[in-house]
Amino acid sequence: MTSTSSTATQVLFDAPGPKGRRRILLLSVLSVVVILALLAAAVWQFHINGQLDPNKWIVYLRVDYLAFLGRGLWGTLKVTALAALVAFPFGLLLALARLSRVKLLSTIATVWIEFYRGIPMLLVVYAFLLALPAFGVTFPRFWMLVIPMILVSSASTAEVFRAGINAVDRGQHEAAAAIGLSRRDAMLSVVLPQAVRLVLPSLILALVTLLKDSTLGYVVSYNELQFQGKTLVSITRYLVQTYLVVSLIYIVINFLLTRVALALDARMKARAAAS
Amino acid sequence: MDAIRENIPLLLQGIGTTVALTVLGYVFALVVGTAMAVARVSPIPPLRWAATVYVEIFRNIPLLSLLILIAFGLPDVGLRLPYFWCGVLGLTLSSAAFVCENVRSGINTVPIGHAEAARSIGLGFVGTLRYVVLPQAFRSMVQPLVNVFIGTVIGSALCSAIAVQEVTWVTQTLNIRYAQAVLMFLVAGAAYLVLSLGGAAIGGVIERAVSPGSGRERSKAGAALDVTAGAQA
């Protein structure tokens, strides 16, 4: 991604001459001034409302507060990992079912996938939180968060796997048929191993989505990071500080995961281009 | 059914709010996101950096965290917005990051020769983008932008967590009052499915309208595995 974008960037404008360089410099200085002014306005707004008081920030260096948020982060990671461990294989099965020649199987899978891709996860969470208890079915809070995550993620990862399977070169199917493999064997031992490798970056991004979805623990009151932040707010009353810290933790984790996914993608594209 | 018949105005209001959140958030996101994408490929380094930082922040923050920060955090620093506009702001900021990424990868699908040709006939940065690159890039962007729209539809449900009375909020409130769970879920689910599918259908019409001859094959190949398009919620 990065390499292509930088070449495109270089090609969209000429190497600037002396006049162009002066203009770019002028616009650069101007935009720096505007950006700094915006940042300064934000800091000023914090200041006049007394939110820059060091006492309101220093608490996030205290061990017990950090441990409290750390427990939330542990909850977030636990929920995300478990949901991914179930949802990814499940998504693969759904993709295979959707591609299956058995009409009934592929219809069921298609309906399942389109349904869970089309409705918000919050609605599924409410089904577990509000609707099912009315029928006498209750789950612990942990599962009220994890099961909706699995259901929604299974649908989107199924589409990821399907795209991966379709992206495997047709010749691979034909070659597998030519050496006498059945359709199922060809899928299992020739196509799938390649498809899974192809979709690895997309799966990491699905992990990012799961991590974001886990914030709905806030709604079901499960002790993940966002809900832990809410609890912390009710103790300290330092609202904007707490939610900024919490959001920053999410941003850093997701940023790193996205980087890994993009690096992996770039490496695979480079290798494909080389061969 | 009584639960629905007695509350039709309330339900319609909820659906209307969801539509308003989605449409406003999406349209603003298109504007902001395209501006960010232009900034990211511009010859002005500080603009490039600022747009990159913007995308990395708003692509990676969970939408719920962002909405909570806007709705409950901003009043702490003296900025009070009605909850509805908090929702629109959150959806805009988040979707704009995804629009930006898709516009940027759309720009990258235009062969470099076209930009070079545009420069060789004397067009500058703005002219190259405006007359040559963006109109072509738009074709390959229709499908990804439809996905951003569906992401905005689904994301709008989270606004119920900050007390915006959209369709999820309305149906769940009625659900508590009438204990008509199945019915209420059908209403809410149908509203979201119609919105998403409607958006996808309009996108399909636009895509056919703008694609010349072989365009369909090309967009199919492009859609095969675009990693950056995913991961929106």
Features:
heterodimer, A: 275 residues, MetI-like fold, 2 domains, disordered N terminus, B: 233 residues
Q: How would you concisely characterize the structure shown here?
A:
The complex is a heterodimer of chains A (275) and B (233). Chain A is mainly alpha-helical and 275 residues long.
CATH class of chain B: Mainly Alpha
Structural class of chain B: mainly alpha
Which CATH architecture of chain B is right?
A: Orthogonal Bundle
H/E element order of chain A:
HHHHHHHHHHHH
The low-confidence parts of chain B are 214-225
The main sheet of chain B comes to: none
Just give the CATH class of the largest domain in chain A: Mainly Alpha
Average pLDDT taken over every residue of chain A = 88
Supply the number of structural domains of chain A. 2
Number of strands of chain B: 0
The succession of helices and strands of chain B, N to C, reads HHHHHHHHHH
Biggest sheet of chain A, open or closed, and with what strands and sense?
none
CATH superfamily grouping of chain B: MetI-like
User: Helicity range of the residues of chain B?
Assistant: over 70%
Question: How big is the Rg of chain A?
Answer: 25 Å
How far apart are the first and last residues' alpha carbons of chain B, in Å? 33 Å
Name the structural class of chain A: mainly alpha
Number of helical regions of chain B: 10
